[in-house]
Specification:
The protein has 224 residues and is α/β, with parallel strands linked by helices. It has one domain: Ribonuclease H-like superfamily/Ribonuclease H (Nucleotidyltransferase, domain 5, 2-Layer Sandwich), CATH 3.30.420. The chain is built from 8 helices and 5 strands. Strands 3-2-1-4-5 form a 5-stranded mixed β-sheet, with helices on both faces. α2 crosses α3 (102-109).
Length: 224
């Protein structure tokens, strides 16, 4: 039942266009299927153990978020995720934390940018990044409810979050529960096993390891 529900919003983000001032950032989540080191020290920082989710939101709180890879973000993946969702001629500025991989996407968009480093904690920086930092916190809190989830289904949960957030924004115009129920009833969706497998295969390609990668074998307490 949950898969059928997610399928109704599978293409929801494709039609979203951001305008005005746009904020971008990334969050990271562990791959539940990657072998863990239960006895030694876990690696800190951005490692291949983590998959990254690209997030963007504008001042009107229109948002997108996509699972686009693992490890450190690349310029190409950031560009492919962001550019199709920028409304042509309406974006005035992109605010970000100065990550090197953001540069090519912003240059290609042809708009000016504003950098606020995450390590800087002055009042101006915190105020400028408040919206995107809050957005990241909302998503992380939402995902914490699904600990151990198969990473191949993560994008489905992200799509559902974006849809629910939009419904909540328009709650005064259209009651949220009624709108969701109407959406489900009117959705012309047929979920087949072949479609589900193709989606899983697409997710595997996004988060696949580099060619030749092998997990390091960790010594158990008995071997030590």
């Amino acid at each position: 039942m949950r898969r059928k529900l997610f399928e109704t919003v599978n293409d929801w983000q494709n039609k979203i266009k951001l305008s005005g001032v746009v904020f971008i950032d990334e969050i990271y989540t562990f791959d539940s299927e990657r072998p863990k080191n239960h006895f030694g020290k876990n690696q800190r920082g951005i490692t291949k153990d983590k998959c990254y989710i690209f997030l963007a939101i504008d001042q009107s709180k229109r948002m997108i978020m996509f699972l686009i890879g693992r490890g450190r973000p690349t310029s190409k993946k950031i560009k492919d995720a962001l550019l199709p969702h920028l409304a042509e001629g309406t974006v005035t500025k992109i605010i970000h934390d100065g990550l090197h991989s953001h540069a090519k996407a912003i240059k290609k968009a042809g708009v000016k940018d504003e950098i606020h480093k995450s390590i800087v904690k002055d009042e101006e920086t915190l105020k400028a990044m408040l919206l995107i930092n809050s957005f990241c916190a909302w998503v992380q809190r939402y995902l914490s409810r699904f600990t151990g989830m198969d990473i191949e289904y993560l994008q489905d949960y992200l799509n559902w979050f974006v849809y629910l957030f939009r419904c909540k924004q328009q709650d005064e115009t259209w009651p949220r529960d009624e709108r969701i129920l109407r959406h489900i009833l009117l959705a012309d969706v047929e979920l087949k096993r072949s479609n589900l497998e193709s989606k899983r295969e697409k997710s595997r390609k996004i988060i696949k390891h580099k060619k030749g990668w092998k997990p390091k074998k960790k010594k158990t307490l008995c071997e030590k």
